[in-house]
Specification:
The chain contains 15 helices and 11 strands. The chain is of the alpha/beta class. It folds into 2 domains: 140 residues, Aspartate Aminotransferase, domain 1 (Alpha-Beta Complex); 236 residues, Aspartate Aminotransferase, domain 2 (3-Layer(aba) Sandwich). The strands form 3 sheets. A 7-stranded mixed beta sheet has the order 1-9-8-5-4-2-3, sandwiched between helices. β4, α6 and β5 form a beta-alpha-beta unit. The two termini are 38 Å apart.
Length: 401
């Protein structure tokens, strides 16, 4: 009898393993890689210059200046680096305050903490999940020096109101546009509306370099200094342009240049950026249309895109009724080989957030969103069949629940 049970279990395990091998895991994200990627990276080596500011770094900078219509666009090694540059350029002193949402990645706050400043958290809007512009002024004190709007999921914050508040109180506006490549507010590219803009090209972003970022400004004084900050605080770029006979340390700074190998990979992705964006928008819209029925049944809520904002299809998320439901939903999709993670742990509730930052207001919307949001797979190589499987599983979850 025991041998029979063992034999039966072995057969079950064998069949289970066989089944698992035939089911392809649908990942949350898969990076883009083309034949041009190999070609450009190889060419970067052929230039015999693979450190910073090589051929491909310059090509990427030029591409971004044209794309964004900005005065200066400087490729850096990460979105974090771009934010750190902005924090240095803001001339922050110890104890100065910077207003931002708590529902963001830690780099948004960390960049300013490193300069001795205090991030001050403001709640987000329930529709766009962006900073609630109606609550910003109440958080302003004599110590406030900047507002940092984060364009969540590539959807623009209410920039007219934010800029009006900033002008009234003589504050800088530093856009965290990490998720906002090819996204617009009233037709203007995000990242170019404030004093400085910071993009990410991490492999989870629409346009990727594995790791990478971009610093943007239309302010000529900030642009000149940004070049120095990016080059370890030296005037090295002026030296190579023949503007000085030798270069030296002249300001604060750090090593924010990316390798030209990274830039070569990024440029290969920029080569097909229009195609990538068209595909991502198609996938996003297919999700949006498919889940209309579940939203009508009040099972979930879909993203909301205001009329003045474009949709760059950075992310497709669903909002569940509560934490318990979201936990079950994620587990169900994982059980069926679909990766659908939640997103941020709000910074105001994180240990470092409690230590370094200030939260003067209630964060009810932030806390609710953090408990109920999950993200569905969305990447360039996601097939229609894979997406249909994700959609079908989502409906199955709610049908069986």
């Amino acid at each position: 009898m025991l041998q029979k049970v063992i034999k039966c279990n072995k057969k079950y395990i064998k069949n289970y393993i066989k089944k698992k091998r035939t089911v392809k895991l649908i990942k949350f994200n898969v990076p883009v890689f083309t034949e041009k990627s190999k070609e450009y990276v190889a060419d970067a080596f052929a230039q015999k210059h693979v450190s910073g500011d090589g051929k491909y770094t310059k090509l990427c900078n030029d591409f971004m200046r044209r794309k964004l219509g900005c005065d200066e666009a400087l490729l850096v090694h990460s979105g974090t680096a771009a934010l750190e540059m902005a924090a240095i350029l803001a001339n922050l002193q110890a104890g100065d305050e910077v207003i931002m949402p708590s529902y963001t990645f830690c780099s948004t706050a960390n960049a300013f903490v490193l300069q001795g400043a205090v991030p001050v958290f403001v709640d987000i809007r329930a529709d766009t999940l962006n900073i609630d512009e109606s609550k910003i002024e109440a958080a302003i004190t004599p110590k406030t020096k900047a507002i940092v709007p984060v364009h969540y999921a590539g959807v623009a914050c209410e920039m007219d109101t934010i800029k009006t508040i900033a002008k009234k109180h003589n504050l800088l506006v530093i856009e965290d546009a990490a998720q906002a490549y090819d996204a617009y507010y009233k037709g203007i590219p995000l990242g170019t509306l404030g004093d400085m803009g910071c993009f990410s090209f991490h492999e989870t972003k629409n346009i990727m370099a594995g790791e990478g970022g971009l610093f943007v400004t239309n302010n000529s004084k900030l642009a000149e200094r940004a070049e120095i900050v990016r080059e370890k605080g030296t005037n090295r770029s002026k030296f190579f342009r023949g503007q000085v006979d030798k270069y030296t340390w002249v300001d604060k700074g750090s090593s924010y240049l990316p390798s030209d190998i990274v830039a070569a990979y990024l440029f290969s992705v920029l080569d097909i950026s229009d195609e990538i964006q068209a595909k991502r928008r198609l996938i996003w819209q297919r999700y949006y249309d498919a889940f209309a029925a579940l939203e009508q049944q009040e099972k979930i809520r879909r993203p909301i895109i205001p009329a003045e904002c474009s949709n760059n299809a950075h992310m497709f998320y669903l909002l569940c009724p509560d934490l318990a439901t979201r936990t079950e939903f994620i587990a169900y999709l994982k059980e069926h080989d679909v990766a659908a993670p939640f997103h941020y742990i709000p910074l105001h509730s994180a240990p470092a957030g409690r230590k370094f930052c200030r939260t003067p207001q209630t964060m009810n919307v932030t806390d609710k969103i953090a408990d109920t949001l999950l993200r569905l797979p969305l990447y360039y190589d996601l097939t229609q069949a894979e997406q249909e499987r994700v959609i079908e599983l989502c409906f199955d979850f709610w049908k069986n629940r």
